[in-house]
Write a structure and sequence with these properties.
The chain is built from 15 helices and no strands. Helix 2 packs across helix 6 and helix 13 packs antiparallel against helix 14. The two termini are about 30 Å apart.
């Protein structure tokens, strides 16, 4: 689920927190890093849980409408339980492994805050995607999947109330929400009729050593802070170190750490990754500034024999 870029961002956030706090220790930040990474899976589960509760809400409303003597909008639909029986939605709502995971983690957030489900359900049923889907007399897995993908992308993911709820719950989730939403949408789009239940419960980290990489990047960057600052200042003679943006300084130190301490990661990968993070999290000119310094450092490290890379794709 998480890529190395996501992990780099998490490390950057931890270093930023530490540099702006008087009390936090390295040990505390290592623990926070693991907590921050693990909590992303909780956020992912909560987004799937929202879909589970949405299906339940739809079923409840369909049953109420069926027993009502008064006419309502659903009467005009060829099959008013079409959304309730959406095949992809049911793959999530009836997923025993998912339900067990939600239960074991006591993730009953939407049960305790059901007003959010009512809000999302209202927006879903009032959307053009829902109306077009419900008025169509065809029925297929692809149609069900396309509908759920459209609803997730255009109705659920952009919902500001849900965003505010997550922000209030855990501040670290602010940067995680777009990542999780993108991943959930990708899962929905790639779903097939015969996917096994574990399809919706992927591993949080792609590689076993990703957490080891994260902890090492954090600790080695912090422990060598003074040395890396000298490297940066040495390549920016016209700049006072206090004038370098906080995020730029952190990203530069992380990049230097990765160049010197992770031989299996090609220098081009390191530079490109940190430039992309700079574009998203720092100033408009940061990527140019960072690229200039790293380019000088890489050439210097190569000439001095400090840059020792191993593995494939390193030419």
């Amino acid at each position: 689920m998480l890529t190395r870029r996501h992990i780099r961002v998490k490390v950057m956030q931890c270093i930023y927190a530490l540099t702006h706090s008087q009390d936090d220790t390295l040990e505390k930040q290592v623990k926070f890093l693991k907590y921050s990474v693990d909590s992303m899976y909780t956020l992912y589960l909560l987004m799937l849980s929202l879909l589970v509760e949405l299906q339940k809400r739809a079923e409840e409303q369909a049953d109420i409408a069926a027993k009502s003597y008064l006419g309502n909008v659903s009467d005009a639909y060829p099959n008013r339980k079409k959304f309730v029986n959406n095949r992809v939605l049911l793959q999530i709502a009836d997923n025993k492994l998912l339900l067990e995971e939600l239960s074991s983690r006591k993730l009953n957030n939407w049960y305790l805050n059901e007003e959010y489900i009512r809000l999302i359900y209202k927006e879903v049923t009032e959307s053009e995607y829902y109306t077009t889907y419900m008025t169509s007399e065809t029925s297929s897995y692809e149609e069900d999947k396309n509908l759920l993908a459209d609803l997730y992308k255009n109705v659920i993911a952009p919902n500001e109330k849900i965003y505010d709820y997550f922000e209030d719950d855990k501040l670290t989730w602010v940067d995680d929400i777009p990542i999780i939403n993108t991943f959930v949408l990708k899962l929905i789009k790639k779903a097939k009729p015969d996917v096994i239940e574990s399809y919706f419960l992927p591993e949080l980290l792609k590689e076993d050593d990703d957490m080891v990489y994260a902890k090492q990047l954090l600790t080695k960057t912090l422990l060598n802070d003074a040395a890396y600052v000298k490297e940066i200042v040495g390549k920016t003679p016209n700049w006072d170190k206090d004038r370098i943006a906080d995020i730029d300084g952190i990203l530069l130190k992380m990049a230097i750490c990765e160049l010197l301490n992770f031989p299996s990661i090609p220098e081009k990968v390191t530079i490109n990754e940190f430039l992309e993070i700079a574009k998203e999290y720092s100033t408009p000119k940061s990527s140019i500034f960072i690229n200039g310094i790293l380019d000088k450092l890489v050439r210097e490290y190569k000439s001095e024999g400090k840059l020792k890379k191993i593995g494939r794709g390193l030419l």
